[in-house]
Task: structure prediction
Amino acid sequence: MAERIIYHVDVNSAFLSWSAVERLREDPTSVDLRTIPSAVCGDKESRHGIITAKSIPSKKYHIETGEPVVKALEKCPDLVLVEGHYHVYSEYSRALMDLLRKYAPVVDQYSIDEAFCDMTGTRSLYGDPIEFAYKLKDEIYETLGFSVNVGISSNKLLAKMASDFEKPNKVHTLFPEEVPEKMWPLPVGDLFLVGKSTGESLRQIGIKTIFELAHTDEDLLVSRFKSFGHTLYEYANGRDGSEKGKDSMGHSHDVANKSFSNEITISHDITDREEARLVILSLAETLGSRLRNSHFRVSVIAAYFKDSDFKTHSKQLTIDHNTDSTDELYENGMKLFDMLWHGEPIRLIGLSGAKAEEEGTPEQMSLFGNEERERREKLDRAIDTVRGKYGSSAIKRASLMADKDRKRVPRPGDKH
Result:
């Protein structure tokens, strides 16, 4: 049996990098934002809002993601500020995923700027997986204009941890046998899912490193952190549970579960319904495509989001027929979102379908609306065919391209 190989591909300072590439594409003589103190924010004219991404040179001024723009400007008055454009970032994200799918048998997009690639069994195609990771990283830079880190391991948890090692534009391995040397000496706060609050709680009981967490009695952790204590213990020992069908990142792709889901973690707080709508539309397109490619349809649709306090809000509804329609997933997703959202800052948005049935499963047909459903099905199939041949950017929805300040959103890879 082939050794399991997982890549975690993570864009370096994604929103800042994509803003820099976009700016250079529009004006090749402009300064590369990645080489100067710069940051992405909300409304740069009013100078309100927060920093959502920053360049590496800005770090020497101690600019922090999430801090108010006013505070950042006090630290660095010459900080160059640019506004973020989610639809532009979506284009770069899609271009990256398209490139990864050229080589990886399975690509699991984890957020807008990162993905897991299951490269198991590809050694005969591409040679040594570590050497190929360097080639992939370089091709991304040469083709799309931005750099990534690639973490390599035999499970998703360790691959993600590896990609967070030294940046930018690096390849790192973290196989189980490397955990004692590479992961255990790290501060406990560097472990995936250990936030500030959990890190402080661990330090209060004398756990300062991942090594100490890995060697703490599991029962003690469970008594203090409930079921999350077991998760912490497993993660600290390099185990993510993905062999059981659900990986450490919360994704399940086992068809026997009869459910499909897609979610995106945003690197800044979404507080605008229009931006959330674009995210849900993008999720619906991906979810619909996955359903159609798997020849499944769903009758239960759910929308969920995590707010800035990591509290999950979710709601679902049952429709009177099975569907794989992008439009239906989107329309129902928005209906649910509007019932759920009360203005909380959002960090993650997800859309899922459950009670999946194989295509062709007998169902009660409605006397009305079948003609419209058939029209939508034909349209989705046609779009899938074109995207399958020419890439997901070959056909784009106008609402994902629209921008009040722009006539056209260039596609990553455009030549000038």
User: Anything to note?
Assistant: The CA atoms of residues 325 and 376 lie 7 Å apart. The first helix runs from residue 14 to 26. The longest strand covers residues 259-270. The chain is about 40% helix and 20% strand.
